[in-house]
Predict the 3D structure of the following.
Amino acid sequence: MKFMDITVKVDKSLLTIAEELENKLKDAINQATLEVKEEVLDNIRRGYVKLNYPPISESYRKQLERKGLLPHEGLISPREDKKKLEKSISHSFRRGGLEGVIKTSRPYAIFVEEGTRKMPARPFFQPALDAKKERVEELIKKAIEDALERL
């Protein structure tokens, strides 16, 4: 008795392209994550001036003036708190480098970002992502195009 069989396989060159695409995407995600993180840090350092937040209250301005902490461009107290928030910003990668994560370890950061009943929001994470959205898309698109050029 004769048997028929059909073999379906992927050409090895396609596997190479898939590997290349993955590597290029990892590079793009790495670059994008670092650029967004730098934007977050810049927002913390220069938030009031850069992001046009309303000026600090007169009582807070006087308090900073007494402490010798003016001019004040950052989102929060220019010395200790700002440095703590700034130093708490970190990045990592998940899913084998295909996902970049930027985070803070300071529990009060969410109150700065979203505000409270008594404190207006002074977002620094979302504006960073908004500012870099097109750049992130550009990096990923270029990675895909570069890998697919081989086809």
